[in-house]
């Protein structure tokens, strides 16, 4: 591991290192959120409003972070979420991230718009894997991807439903991201100012969409394969007929949608506002968690994502009723900072924090973390500078 990675002791450190390593437009595409970025900021701030009351004088000499989710045993209740076109952030792309997930024995999720194929990920990680689907107008294209993922050893499927249109990530757009938007001169200058990234990018030429297509897609093909605007719960029923493994619906926020998703065959809900990248008025998933847990009860697992930057955030989510958590930016900051080694660093930081905070709470198993630890009064204020609150 490089010295720079070794010096990173928090996700915020990896965020800063990623910022140095990436050209500004790529970094902005990774960091940013939609419109005024209220949802992005609130996702993180919401965690600081949840507090836990620790127990003392418990035997915490052995702590076990392992759990069971989406039909698999994993080493900690933290999954790597789907992030499209990871090849833009580091030449080791999704393969490096999946190999890091394998080392840490947790889920890796491959995005429909990934720059690696399900077959490559099947080889990179023997740990449980989830294929993320955007369902396009031509449903057969999605079904073909499901078949490929199954053959490549993917154990779970998730359908992302919060993207009938892409959120307006204005800051990234100004910088000409994502392609084929035109870049201003300042973006080109920033790219030239990162020769190492540029060299690796040109040498490896990662291609967005090779997860979905088994060839480099044309711009026309990419457009046609965008998420369908007429997606409905019946699509979930139809998918259920083809896929008998764990099926998660990602991007659900309302209790009604959560109930309907379960009635149509979902075995898990991924409570998510897409990391604040879509609907800027969306509440923080962690704030909605108790109501959604009430609505679906034992009928489905609930995975929450958005704003998790610390191991203790995972414990907060579990105390509020989540089965597990998912991260996007935190591990991709690691990827941008140092490829597979950087993702491993991100996972190690979060695992260490998880263990340390379990010890401090006086618990030894994830199953023992529940609502009894919650401090009922809400409303503490995050004192940090707003710009530092959500990397
Ligand atoms: C650069 C980037 C690309 C993403 N691409 C996808 C995607 O292709 N499909 C998807 O379902 N979610 C995608 N997401 C959302 C993540 O899966 C996840 O919901 C979100 O990042 C969680 O918030 P966090 O970044 O605060 O952890 C993306 C997120 C980022 C930051």
Automatic annotation (TrEMBL):
Gene3D superfamilies for this protein: Aldolase class I
Residues engaged in binding glyoxylate: 29, 132, 134, 169, 274, 277
Keyword field: Flavoprotein, FMN, Oxidoreductase
Domain of life: Bacteria
Pfam family, one: FMN_dh
Cofactor: FMN
Residues holding FMN: 82-84, 160, 250, 272, 305-309, 328-329
InterPro entries for the chain: Aldolase_TIM (IPR013785), Alpha-hydoxy_acid_DH_FMN (IPR012133), FMN-dep_DH (IPR000262), FMN_HAD (IPR037396), FMN_hydac_DH_AS (IPR008259)
A GO molecular-function descriptor: FMN binding
Family under the similarity heading: Belongs to the FMN-dependent alpha-hydroxy acid dehydrogenase family.
Name of the protein in its database record: FMN hydroxy acid dehydrogenase domain-containing protein
Source organism of the structure: Thauera terpenica 58Eu
